[in-house]
Amino acid sequence: MGVKIKLVLAVVLILSANVLGQDEIVNDTESTVSVTEAQVVELETDVKEKEDETFEETSPVELLPATENLEVRSGKYQLNDGLVGEEPVNLEAVDFNSNNVESEKQLLSPPSTTVVTGTDYSYIDGRVLPATTYQNNGQPYVITTQRLQQIRSNFMYWFYDQGGSDNIGDYQRDIHTSTPQIHKNFNFQLPFFGFRFNYTRISMNGYIYFSDPPDHYTYPLSFPVRDWPNINDPSFIGIFFSKCRIGNMRPEEPDPRRPGIYFRLDRDLQTRTDQLGVEMRERVTWDIREGVIGSETFFPKHTITITWKNMSFAGGIDNSLFMTNTFQMVLATDEVFTYAIFNYLEINWSSHTEAGGDTTTGEGGIPAYIGFNAGNGTRSYEYKPYSQASVLRDLTGRGWANGFPGRHIFRIDENILMGTCNKDIDGANLPLMFAPESGNMLGGTIVNITGPCFNPNDRITCRFDTESVLGAVVDVNRAICVQPRFWHNGYARFEVAINNEPYKWKGRYFVETPATATEKIFFPDNSVHERYPPEVRITWDRFNLTTNLNVQLQISLWGYKEVTIRPQLEYIDMIEVGVANTGEYVINPQNFRNRENIMHNDMQFGFLQINLTTPEVFKGVPISPILWSRPIPLGWYFAPQWERLHGQRWSNSMCNNWLRTDRFLKNFAAQVWVCPCTLEHALLDKGRFMPDLDCDRDTNPTCRYHWGGIHCVRSGAPSSEGSGQQCCYDKNGFLMLSYDQMWGSKPSRSHDFGFTPYNEANKVPSLSRWFHDMIPFYQCCLWQEEQAVGCETFRFERRPSQDCVAYQSPGVAGIFGDPHIVTFDDLQYTFNGKGEYVLVRVDHSQLKLDVQGRFEQVPRNIHGAVNATHLTSVVAASNNSQTIEVRLRPQHAQWRYRLDVFANGKRVYFDRTALRVQYFPGVTVYQPMYVLNQSEIVVMFSSGAGLEVVENRGFMTARVYLPWTFMNQTRGLFGNWSLDVNDDFTRPDGTLASVDLNNFQSAHRDFAQHWQLTDREQRDIGVAMFVREYGRTAAYYNDNEFIPNFIREPANFLPANRSHDVARAIEICQNSYQCRYDYGMTLNRDMAEFTKNYLSSITNIKEQNARRVISCGILETPRFGRKSNFFFTPGTRVNFECNQDFILTGDKRRVCEDNGRWNLPDYGYTECLRKQEYSSRTLGATWGIISAVMLPIIIILICVAWRILQRRKAEEREENEFLDVKTRAIDPDDSVKVTSDDESIPYKKDVTEETPEPTEGVQAVEPSDPNYNYGRPYVNLQPGQPRQWGGETEIN
C-alpha cells in the first residue's frame, strides 16, 4: 500500500513539474521535483516506454493522407488530446481545486495512464500562451500525421488564459457589463457576405459585428432592418446573439480557465514555421477540407478564434450566474474564401429577460438569434430551425462536422452556405448544398451533397431534371451521386430524396457543353488532329481523380454519331488498363492498326475518358470520377480501318459521302444573322454576336480552325431552326471569307448551344455541331489539300461565308449618371425620377421586349442629402425568355463582384471559365473573357436585342442594342426609334409630350413620370419584373414626392460661396453638361468623370454604327491560284496569281469601285489552268480563231465558186440553146421577134400552154459541098424543099 502511495505521489509531482514548466521555458531534462534517484530513474523509464508505445517515430508530412474517419466525440470536455482510441476520462478523479497550472490534456488524462511530460506538445496544449517565435529546437516545425490526428480529436480550439505581456493570454478583460464590446484590427481582409472588412468589434452578447447596431432591438429580431438607412442595419456574425453577462463557474466545472471572452488572432499561417502556427494551419485546413464539400483546395492564411466561456444571461438573479453557456467561433480565410466554425460546448439557457426569459433559468421568451447579417439593408441568413426557437438547445447535439456533435461549419464569404447537415428542418423546398455546382454534359461528375442528415442505411435518390440515380452515404454530413449524361446544357433541376420521402432538398445544377466544359485532359501538341500521328501525348491533373496517387486508371475511347433520330454516344475501345496516376500518358496509334470496329468505324469524332480501374464502392454503389477530353477527331485511331474500307484517299471518299448526305438536308443559310464587315462592328453588335471561344483574342488567340484570324464572333443564340453564324476577322479587322481561303468564316448547321428538344439528332449541344460542321472540315480540308475539289465544294457550296453587303448596324440607346438618357434617335435629356421605370417596351404580336430600370437616390455628400438619383438595377425579358436582372452591388460589397445577376429570380455567377457563358431559355448571358470581377454583363435575346451593363467605381450604365426589325416599335424613356427625334417623347397612351430639353422639370413631369412601374399590370406599361427581396415592392422604391434639382448648370443651383465647386466642375467636365451637373450635385469626381466617359462611349458607338462599310462582296479566289489581298472595300485592287505549273487566264486584276461592285472583267473571269489544259485550250482557241477567220473566206469562196459555176452552167446552157436553135427548123408560127436595146433572148410566150410533143432530133449533116458559104442568105425555095437562111433570125 505504501508503495502505491509513493508511486501516485511521484506521478502527481511530475505532473506538477510539467505544468510549472509551461510558465517558463526550462530544459526538458531538468527535474523540478524532489524524489529519490531510483524513483526518478524508474519513472523516466516508464515514461520512455510509454512514449515508445504511444508516439512512434514517423516521417514528417505536410499533407494528411487518406485515413479512416475520425472517432465521433461527445462534444464535451471529456474530449482529450490523446490519440484515437483513448477511453473517456473519469472527471471525478481530477482535483479541480488545485492551484497548479494544468493543461486541458492533463486534466483529462486518466489516472492510470502515465502522461508524457516535457514535450513540445505539452507546450502548446497548456493554458499559457505560447510564443510565436518558439520552434522545435530552432528548426522549422513539421507536423506528423499522428500529431495532426491528435489535435484534431479535440473539440475546442486552443485558447489561453495565461501568458503574454499581462499574463492573461487571450482573455479580454476590457469586455464587461459596462463595456460590452471591444474593437479589434485584423490587418488583413476578411470577406463576409459579399463585403470585406479589416476590423471587427467583439460583443459580449454572442456576436461580432462590423457596423453600428441600432439603438434598440425589438424581439423577435428580424434582419435586414427594413427601415435602413433611417435605422442602422448592422453587419454581424451571430453565434449566440442574445444579451449576456459573464457568469460564474460551477463547482463541477472541468475547465479552470476563468469565465469571459477570449480572442486570439493567428495571421500569416501559410508562412509560419513555429509550432503553434503550423499546427493551427494544418488543423484548420483539414477540419474545413473534410468538413465542407467543395473546399478541397482551401488553404487558410489567417484565423480568428473567439471563445465565450461561461456566459450567463442578462437580467437574471445572482444565482443565475451559474446558469452558463460556452461556445466558440473560429473564422478562417485566405482573403477570398471565408469559413466559420461554430463550436457549441454547452447551452443551459436560451433567452434573456428583456426578450421574455425568466430571471432564474433563462427559459421562455424569444431565444437567441443565430445567423448572419450582411448589413446596409442587403441580405441576411438565419440558421433555421434553431435560431429564435426552442430547439436551440439541440445545437450541442447537431452539426456533426468532423464527427463532433455541436460543431457547425458555414462558408460565409459571398453567400452563406451550410457545410453541415440540418436534421430538424422540414419543408417543400429546402436548400441543398452540393459541390461541384457544374459538370460536363457527358456525365460522370461526382457530386457531393450536404443538407439532410444521413444514416448509414439510408437510400439516397438524386434526380437531375427527369433522370434519377442512386446515391451513396459517406457520413452523416455527406452523400454522393454520380451525374448522369445530359443532352442539353444550362441549368438543370437537382433534387434529393431520402428513402421514401419526397424530393424536398432542391438546387440548380449547371450543365457544361463538352466543347466549353472545363478542360481536364490536355493535348500538348497537334498530333491528335493529324491523320497518321506517330504518337498522341495526353496529360491531366492527377488530383482531379483522387487524392490517392497510388490508384490505377484506365483510358478508354468513346465516339459519337447521328444515324437515327436519337444521338449515339458509345464506347469504342479500351486504350489502356492499369495506368499509373502520374498525370501523363503516351498513346501509340500503331497498337490499334489492326483493330476492326465494324460497329463503330463510322464514328469520326469522339472523346477520351479516364477513370479508376477499380471504382470505389459505397453501400453497393460503384463510384468513380470521370475525366473527359474535349471533342477530338478520330483519324489517329480509325485511319488504318478507313484506308482498308475506302482506299488510300479515304478522306476524299468520306468527304464525298458527306457532301452527298448534306445536300439532302435543308439549306439553313437564310436563317442566320448577316456578318458585320469589320471587327469593330462585330464587337459593337451586342445583341446578335458574342465572342467565339475557339478563336478569342483574350483567351484563345491560337485560332486553330481560322489560321490568320485574330478574333471570331458567333451568334449568341440558335436561329429558328437551330443553326448558327460565325464571323472571323483578320489582323486588319476585315471579315474572312471562305471564298478566299479555307480558314474563313463558316456558318454551322447546328449551334453549339443546341436546340430544343436537344435529345434529337442535329440538336445536341456541341456534339451535333461537331458531327455536321467540324468533322466535315477535317475530312474535306484539313485532311486534304486546300484546293482539293472536296474542300472547295465545302467552302463554296456547303459552308460558304456570307458576305456583309446586307449588314445593318443595330440602333443603340443608353442611360448613365444622374441619370442622363440618350435615345435611339440621339436625343439627350436628363430625368431624376426615384423609383422603377420603363426604359424600352415593345409589344408586338411577334416581337416583345421589356427593359426596365430602377433609380435610387444618390448618397449624401458633405453638404447633406443630394436631390438626384442614379441607375442601380436593370431587368429585361424578350418574348418567352427568362427574366434577367443586373443589379449594382453596394460599394463595400464590390471587392470581388461588382454586379449581381439574377436569372429567373436566382443569383448566378460567372467567376469560373466554364460559367463565363450561360444559356437560359430564350436568352444568353455572358461576362466578357477579359473581365474577372463581374463588372460587365451582356444579355442577348434570341430576337437579336441586346443589353449591356457596365460598372465602374460604383457607377453603372446600361445600353440597349436593337436590330432594325424593332424600328418604329419601341416606347419608353429611350423613345420611339424612328430616325426622327420629334416622336421620342411619346407617352404610354400614344400622345406626344411637348418637352423643353433645357427644362428638366418639363421632361420629368410631362413625359418620364408617366412611365413609372408598379407591381400591378398597367396597360401599355407592363408590370415591374425586378426580384423582390425582404418584401421590398415597387412601392418601396417609388417616391412621387421626391423633387430633384431641375436646374441644369452648377453655376445656377450652387450657392455663391461655392464658386470653387463650379470652377472645379468646369475644369473636370469642360463641355459636357451632364458631367458638370453630376459633379455639382454630388461633388463626386469619379461619378462626374464616368458620366463623361459613358457619354463619350455611347456617342462613339453610335458614330461607329452609323459609319456604313461599303462592300463589293465576294470575289472568288481562282482555283489553283491566289489573291494579292482579301479586301473588299472601294478602292481595293486585287491581283491574281497562279500556282507553279499553272497559267493565268482572264483578268489579272479586279478593282472594287465606289458603287460597291467589282469592275467587269475585260478579258473574262480569272482562271488558273494547268499547262496541258492551257495548251489544249489555247490550241482550241487558235483553231477557233482560224476557223472564225477562214470560215467567212471559205463561204465567200464557195459562193464565188458557186456563182462561177452557175455562170458557167448558164453559159453552157446558152451555148446548148444556141446550138439547138441553129440546127432545128424554127416554126414561124410559134415565134415572135423580141428586140431589146442589148440583145435578143429567147422568151416563151405562154408558159401555161401545154408542152408540145417532142420532135425528132436534129441531125447535123456535113454539107456535101465543102465550098458552101455559110454566110450567104437563104434563097427562095420551092415547096417541099428546105428553106435557106437569108442572114436574119426569126422568132415565132
UniProtKB/TrEMBL annotation:
Domain NIDO: 260-415
Region annotation (Disordered) ranges: 1230-1292
Biased composition (Basic and acidic residues): 1230-1248
Record-annotated membrane-spanning stretches: 1181-1205
Domain VWFD per the UniProt entry, residue ranges: 811-1019
SUPFAM superfamilies per UniProt: Complement control module/SCR domain (SSF57535), E set domains (SSF81296)
Domain Sushi: from-to ranges: 1110-1170
Signal peptide start-end: 1-21
Residue ranges occupied by any AMOP domain in the UniProt entry: 647-798
GO cellular component, one term: membrane
SMART domains: AMOP, CCP, NIDO, VWD
InterPro entries to which the protein is assigned, alphabetical: AMOP_dom, C8-3_MUC4, Epithelial_Barrier/Signaling, Ig-like_fold, Ig_E-set, NIDO_dom, Sushi/SCR/CCP_sf, Sushi_SCR_CCP_dom
Protein name stated in the entry: Protein mesh isoform X1
Organism: Bombyx mandarina
Protein's gene: LOC114242731
